[in-house]
Amino acid sequence: VRPLRYDLTLIPNVTAATFRGEESVDVELLEPTTTIVLNCSEIEIAACRLDLSDGSQHEPVETVMDETGESVTFRFDTALAPGAATLHLEFTGLLNDKLRGFYRSTYTDQDGNERHLATTQFEATDARRAFPCWDEPALKAVFKVALLVPEGLTAVSNMRVTRESPAGDGMKRVEFGETPLMSTYLLAFVIGDLKSIERRAPDGTLVRVWATAGKEEQGRFALETSVKLLRFFNDYFGPPHPLP
Q1: Cα–Cα distance, 91 to 93 (Å, whole number)
Q2: pTM score above 0.90
Q3: Do 172 and 148 meet the contact criterion of CB atoms below 8 Å apart?
Q4: Which three-class secondary structure state does DSSP give residue 31?
Q5: How far apart are CA 215 and CA 162, in angstroms?
Q6: For residues 115 and 109, is the Cβ–Cβ distance under 8 A?
Q7: CA 144 to the chain's CA centroid
Q8: Closest CA to 158 of 39, 244, 40
Q9: Under 8 Å between Cβ of 218 and 146
Q10: What percent of the chain has pLDDT over 70?
């Protein structure tokens, strides 16, 4: 089974240090199989369904979690034919304090108050702690991320925000553009009371430095240096930076 595209929605609860998630993964079944195995660690699966290109839907007859092997195996009662399919999953997890996967970080704000933010560190093999996935560098895919967060907080991910809409109960849904084809460990997102400073590089690329509110100006040197470096590397390597 080869992943092609992840459509991922995550709903973190920073106060409770938990999160809920939903994902639809477009996959290619390369050969007949009765099992689908993904990397998964410290996550509980709430629901699973596989939609085949012929319109049929299949639910696993058994779900086997292997915490030692950091995997989840879905077993089906019939052989799945090769071709396109979409795997739908619902799951829950913990915002851990291990500085890896999807975790909660604590800091002191400008007024001396303790604050929290939720952030990620997936390199090298910890995307599996945020969502079930094929957490192997060679199994590249496209990622479409949406985050449901409190209205007063900011959400940042790899791509630009494409849509922001009310989600009720003081929450908002923040949707990001599709990433290029890439490895799972390159995916990232942060939710918190964040502010940014920005400049456009000579080629038009928008460069931002994000920080907790009140500390954004401390990123000024990083911003100026990054713009200079981007121009240098564009000239040095020839092809321009491919992202917006």
Answers
A1: 7
A2: yes
A3: yes
A4: coil
A5: 26
A6: yes
A7: 8
A8: 244
A9: no
A10: 100
